[in-house]
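User: Some background: our group keeps a shared notebook of sequences we're curious about, and every so often someone picks one and asks for a predicted structure to add to the entry. Today it's my turn. The entry only has the sequence so far, pasted here. Could you supply the structure so I can complete it?
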Amino acid sequence: MKAPRVTLDQWRTLQAVVDHGGFAQAAEALHRSQSSVSYTVARMQDQLGVPLLRIDGRKAVLTEAGGVLLRRSRQLVKNASQLEDLAHHMEQGWEAEVRLVVDAAYPSARLVSALTAFMPQSRGCRVRLREEVLSGVDEVLTEGVADLAISGYAIAGYLGTEMSSVEFVAVAHPDHALHRLNRALSFQDLESQLQVVIRDSGRRQPQDVGWLGAEQRWTVGSLATAATFVGSGLGFAWLPRHLIERQLREGVLKPLPLEQGGSRHPVFYLYSNKDKPLGPATQILVELLRQFDTAPLDVPIAAPQLA
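Assistant: Of course. Here's the predicted structure to add to the notebook entry:
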């Protein structure tokens, strides 16, 4: 790649001349001599081979080419300033990235709310979000691949912060054979039917949480796929209410009238990597995740305010 001939300082000088209305005003704003400012701009024009300014009376005015280049240079200078700020924050212990792994059953609306609030406080810190199912969250955290984890069950050797519960509802299509029985259902009724379960994304000790030992079991890779299967009349499943609220309202899915266990409320926990101290950005994100954990799921999410 060809090395640039014009420096960031030269672009900043040109911007100051235009923004402050002249060489003398720019020199005062930059705490430099007027001759230094004039030389810098003249040198730029020689290096670029394009006239950037013309003198109109006593005022320096941008040429057409100068206007185009100045507009492009503003983003260049802004990016360089942000890069320097990020380096300064990192020197003070501010993280360049926070890695967050979340169980796919946790409400994504709450994540979006927390991350939207985090963005203007992030100082350039990126968030790497990863979704796993059941023990997949455990593995990602214990392998050191995540800084924070939200899981629906206890992770051995870690102290988690209790968060809200998520309601799982046993559902099937309204025309499913179980609904046609027109009575309260027992687990024996379910055992003779096809159950759709979600594949545990963990590799070491995958679990069959929620499976009743039904004669037929179909395993799918995501909650959304399970909802699609069940909504098409293929079997029954326990699914997060927040994920299937629309299908329930529209009558595509209907809760099963179980004698007991028709809904489950597993509590979720927020964990941190115990082998890595929490940096300032991670601590801010932790507080925001806890703050928005109890937010109503039917409240519209505000658009992020961009700087």
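Suggested note for the entry: The chain has three domains: 8-91, 97-165+267-292, 168-264. The radius of gyration is 29 Å.
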